Amino acid sequence: MRYVIAMKRACANVSGIVFQYPFYAGIMGIMLYTGLGELISDWMASSATLTTLPLIAQVSGAVVNMAIPSAGGEWAVIGSTFIEAAKNLGTELPPDQVREFIARVSLAVAYGESSTNALQPFFLLVVLPIMGLGVKIQARDVMGYLVIPFLILYILTAVLITIMPT
Predict the structure, then answer these.
(1) Which residues of the chain fall below pLDDT 50?
(2) Number of domains in the chain
(3) Which entry of 42, 83, 122, 147 is 20 to 30 Å from 95 by CA?
């Protein structure tokens, strides 16, 4: 309880977000070192085809980002599985197309991760203390307005990675 009170005194506007960091590190450790992250990404990639793997990678990036909001941590957990899935699906393609396919799948994970950043707005750690100077504003006061940009960004990137050529 003292930790929560000290956090509230130190950074009142964003204490709710900062308080979550140790939990995210614990979740990443569990997913990385128990094999849970690899199991989840293997399960998601197991039924993929050349046309569906980028979309599945985007969905996986978005889902895992809710538990691990660090792009590097997320990539450490699910990245290698999607690279292997892309290599396995691309065995019949020429080498240059395999590289392009791996790049598309890698970017799809990143797009899923970056689009859900609107729902977990860590950029507010910088914005709220300045924007809320002298005003009682919390992160939860702003987060509801970020659902529409998230939906637009997520759908746009899903369409682009599905239909755009590499």
Answers:
(1) none
(2) 1
(3) 42
